[in-house]
Structure formats: C-alpha cells, structure tokens
Write a structure and sequence with these properties.
It is built from 10 helices and 11 strands. It has 253 residues and is an alpha/beta fold. The strands form 3 sheets. Strands 1-2-4-6-8-11 form a 6-stranded mixed beta sheet, sandwiched between helices. It has a 3-stranded mixed beta sheet with strand order 7-9-10. Strands 3-5 form a two-stranded parallel sheet. The chain is globular and about 55 Å long.
Length: 253
C-alpha cells in the first residue's frame, strides 16, 4: 500500500532570529539571489513594523537582497514603506551584505544606519541596464554618501563595484573576509545593543528620522518615475536584452 504524498511546505522568504535584544532578518530566496518580489517586500515591511514597536529590541540587522522588475507596483509601495521605517524606527539598523547587492537590494542596504560587507560583496545601481529609474531611496541616499558626481556616474552607467571600492566611497563602514564577517557583525551589534539606549535612539532620531518628510517626497518621485520608465520602449528592450543575454539597443523613448 503506497503512502499518500504530502506537499512539502515552502520555506519562508524572510527568516527572523533573536539573541537577547538583537534581531536579525535574513532574506531567504537563495535560488533567486534574494531578489525582491512582492512576497519578500511585504514580509520585510511587516517584520520591520513589528520590530519597531518592540521596546525590548535594541538593534536590527538585515541580510543581502537583489531587486527585479516583477510585480513592480506592489514592490515599490512595500519597499517605500520599508525604507521609511528603517530610517525612522527607534532601533539602530545594521545592513550585513554578504553577497551581491544590486538595484533595490543596494538601496535597501543604503537605508540602514550602518553597512558591513563581506570581501566578496558587490554593489550596483544597475537600473540603467534595463531602462529603469532607481527605487527604494537610491536617488536620496547615494548622493549623500558619495557626492552628486559619483552618484551620477553610478546611476547613469549601472556598473557594479566591489566591496573595497564601496569602502573607499564610504558606502560601507567595514569590509571583512568571510571567516570574520558574521562574528564582526555580531560584535558591533552587541556593542550597540549594550550601550545607552536613550542616548543612542536620540542620536538616530536626530541623524535620520528628522529627514522623514524629505525622504518621503524623494520616494514618491521615485515610484512615479520608475512606473513611467517601466512602460517605455527602453525598459522593454533592456529587460528583453537581459533575458537574451545580449547588449541592449536603447532608442531613448
């Protein structure tokens, strides 16, 4: 007699763990290099909202992610809210980048207070490669970190940079080899979590949360422009060329 088969439950797209007052969120779509789809964006947004309201959490960490153009509208709206919450939640946020951080994934990392990268990590505002406008706050965060001229170069070309270059541009705070990466991230998180929380949260509010209105306006413009670009010939050609593994032929419309 054959046993009835039961469907294997799918793994959650976002993993969450807690050690004392430190919460770690890990993107869990390894087969897609943690590309941000609607499900992952929504899960991230909900988790951040819950953590922000938990006064027993002192530090939050987030893992790597990449972006794509699927389910664009919901992703942009969920991402916009997630970015706003990362910047305005009381707890400090550390982005631990242990792989490629491209497009929305890079900008999600830029939204964090502090960024730590493994030596093998790469970064890229690769929207131009497929004819899209940057999202998740890229046009707001990147110029603040690297200056307008370098930000323009990265946004215009969409070229990737390695972790060492990102460190030199002050995109990341630290770069560590793989065998030291997780211990160093945990060490910094623990150091912040055991510090004076009243003072630390006041500093975060002054540094980042006070920019909420300005950031909201920038995010709204990004959503508007990316949806506009998404319906352009250039975007259709860029996505087609990417899937066909060939150089795109943009026409400027």
């Amino acid at each position: 007699m054959r046993q009835a088969s039961h469907p294997v439950p799918e793994a959650p797209v976002l993993l969450e763990s807690r050690e004392h007052s430190i919460v770690t969120l890990t993107m869990n779509r390894p087969d897609r290099l943690n590309a941000l789809n609607n499900e992952l964006s929504t899960a991230l947004n909900e988790a951040i909202s819950r953590i922000a309201a938990d006064s027993t959490v002192h530090v939050t960490g987030q893992g790597r992610a990449r972006g794509n153009a699927e389910e664009l509208g919901p992703i942009l709206r969920s991402g916009m809210q997630a970015v706003l919450k990362i910047r305005t939640m009381p707890q400090p946020v550390i982005a631990a980048v242990n792989g490629p951080a491209a497009g929305a994934g890079m900008n999600l990392a830029l939204a964090a207070d502090i960024r730590i990268a493994v030596e093998e990590a790469v970064f890229g505002e690769n929207f131009a490669k497929v004819g899209l406008f940057p999202d998740y706050g890229g046009t707001y965060f990147l110029p603040q970190l690297v200056g307008p001229a370098k930000a323009a170069e990265m946004l215009y070309t969409g070229d990737m940079i390695d972790a060492k270059t990102a460190l030199g541009l002050r995109i990341v705070n630290y770069v560590f080899p793989a065998d030291r990466f997780h211990p160093e991230v945990q060490s910094l998180a623990a150091k912040i979590a055991t510090g004076p929380q009243v003072a630390i949260r006041a500093v975060k509010k002054d540094l980042f949360a006070s920019q909420r209105d300005e950031l909201t306006e920038a995010l709204e413009k990004e959503v508007e422009q990316q949806l506009k670009c998404f319906h352009s010939h250039d975007c259709m050609e860029g996505i087609r060329a990417f899937l066909e593994k060939r150089p795109p032929s943009f026409r400027g419309h």
